[in-house]
Amino acid sequence: MRPQFNRNNKKKLFNDPVYGFITIPDEILFDVIEHPFMQRLRRIMQLGLSHLVYPGALHTRFHHVLGATHLMSMAISTIRRKGHEITLEEERAVLLAILLHDIGHGPFSHALEYDIVNNVSHEKISGYFIQELAKEFGSDLERAFLIFQNTYSKPFLHQLVSSQLDMDRLDYLNRDSFYSGVSEGIIGSDRLIDMLTVSDGNLVMEEKGIYSIEKFIVSRRLMYWQVYLHKTVVAAEHMLIHALRRAKELTQQGETLFASPPLAYFLQNNVSEINFENNPTVLANFALLDDYDILGAMKIWQHCSDRVLSLLSSGLVNRNLFKIEISKEPYSEDRISLEKEIIKSTYKLEDDELKYFVYTDILSNKAYNQNKQNINLLMKSGEIIDLSKASDNLNISALAQPVEKYFICYPI
What pTM was estimated for this model as a whole? Predict the structure, then answer.
């Protein structure tokens, strides 16, 4: 039976290592934070397997959403100060929307996003969670859902939650930099927020904030190569992806593997978007699934009878990771075939098992997407100009172009 929530909580104070003391400005936010759906985020690491490279990167999605909510409070104050109306109801709703924007992340976040379920993004699952919470908390959550979905009458509220200059990105860059120790990610979030304003219902940045935005975009590019797409992290994530795929394959062939009940549910079933929408059991099981389920299973799977699953799980548990090579050019079929032959002979694998040990793919890094909710500058003349056209930094135009690298990954 779901616990009853006290609607008379006082406003709370959190000691955040990035921002210092931060407050929860409305009681309903604290009640939602206390909900099991939200507490689950304490058990999902923000950076997945990045701690295998940066040992301090053990912060959670829970840390991040609290920080993003704090930044949202600052942004609301800034926009109000500049004469744009945000009602108390809208303030609660946009704070709830940013608090809940990552609630749909599964174990290890992006690494397993499309393997736990079939082609259902974490944004879509976050929407299902918000709708479920609206049944308990009422109109504030319903309004938060409209903002989250970008169907509310004030587009800038959604853009504060999800855009190329949102509170999500402003928090995770500083936070991920802090915990990983990669200083290139540090940005001036206070300055960026202070330069925000609204024009024709959309979020824009005052012209004098242009250099802060340039630094923000360059920092994002650097963090992708140094942390999010670090080659060792990529190798570990692909091992994790393939371990789960092997476990799912074995389970659906009738083998019994150790797994917690919610993990077993997703190993046994191929869950798609329509299942979330038509079967409440799916979301209920997803709400019980976190990093601990995967880690606990892999500790046991490393001793299972299936050699493929055993080798992958043991490698991850003991940090015996595959070798990865990065190239600006695609790897030839001859090179890929050679590695497969070597691995097949060394590990005495069958042909259909090779896909679990030799991986090739593309890494793509695009710091600024000119085709997706552009960052617009409000010039002193009143004209609205896209960042890439207004910037005198030639790097911004270059950063709008995707950089692609190719990799091949295999056991040593």
Answer: 0.94
